[in-house]
Amino acid sequence: MKKTVYIRFTIILLIIGFMLSVQYNTVQNPETRDTRDIWAIRQELSKETETHSELLSEVYVLDQTILKYGNMVNESAEFALKDTVEQLKKDIGLVEYTGPGLTINVEPSLESIALGQPVEGISPDLLIRLINEINRFKAKDLEVDGKRIIYSSPIRDVNGKTTVNNIPVRNAPFTINIGTSTFEDAQKMYNQLEASTIGDDFYIDNLKLMIGEPKRKITISPYDQAVNNEFLKEVPEGKS
Questions:
Q1: The pLDDT value given to residue 4
Q2: Is 80 exceeded by the pLDDT of residue 204?
Q3: Residue 187 sits in which domain range?
């Protein structure tokens, strides 16, 4: 009889101990909750939705390209190759761009003019920061002071002058033209650049950014120098 009581008492103590350990663990490691408000969550969801939409658009374009090339190859391999080359030239920046976009004027600050300070040229670092900011907002084509920016465009200091494509950039004022895929993208870029703090960096260097209203049609000149293709090799005719 006593043995049975001891067994029951032991089982009860084990159950109580288990419950206490579970409760202690819950107190020490409470469930992590998302404390963001509904608006922050909606903004995050909006960003993810926009990214998903962009990916779907890119997939659609690639699918259409594959379909088009498949049809072209059946009809004419030479025509398909020429079409591919022309598209690559557009993507790289070797042809003139005409389409939606906006213009930025880089001017001396009013304070520097009022104080009679000499107009200094833009530094390479500041120009690169501006271009990175523009590209962050999905620019399609870009031209700085009449110099087309492509994947290999060098921006550096040469004898105290900032150069693009090894050509000096004029002291302010000068113009930056930006091409976008759609007029809506140009409007978004305008709003984003207006809200950006990049203008403060220019103000420190006695320069001012004047961001023009989006336009449905701007023209950007083509890249007019030799393209570096040191990693590309021509396949001799007859070989594949």
A1: 60
A2: yes
A3: 98-218
Residue 239 counted as domain residue: no
At 172, give phi and psi (nearest 5°): -60, 140
* Across 206-216, average pLDDT: 94
What is the Cα–Cα distance from 129 to 189, expressed in whole angstroms? 16
Distance between CA atoms of residues 82 and 227, nearest Å: 18
With respect to residue 237, please indicate whether it lies within any of the assigned structural domains: no
Judge whether 151 lies within some domain: yes
Residue whose entry in the numeric block shows the structure tokens 């907002």 = 137
Percentage of the chain with pLDDT > 70? Answer: 72
Q: 43-69 burial string, b = 16+ CB within 10 Å, else e?
A: eeeeeeeeeeeeeeeeeeeeeeeeeee
110/207 same-domain check: yes
Q: Is residue 231 part of a domain?
A: no
Torsion 95-98-102-104 (CA) sign: positive
Partnered with residue 101 across adjacent β-strands are 179, 215
Question: In this structure, is the dihedral angle defined by the CA atoms of residues 104, 102, 222 and 138, taken in order, positive or negative?
Answer: positive
